[in-house]
Amino acid sequence: MTIFFTSDHHFGHYNVIKYCNRPFTSAQQMDEIMILKWNETVLPDDEVFYLGDFAMHPSMVSKILPRLNGRKYLIMGNHDRCFKGNSDRWKLHYTDAGFESLMREKQIEIADQSVLLHHFPYQNPNDPDQRYFDHRPKDDGGWLLHGHVHNRWKIKDKQINVSVEVWDYKPVPLTEIENIIYLSTAQVK
Question: Is the pTM of this model over 0.90?
Answer without folding.
Answer: yes
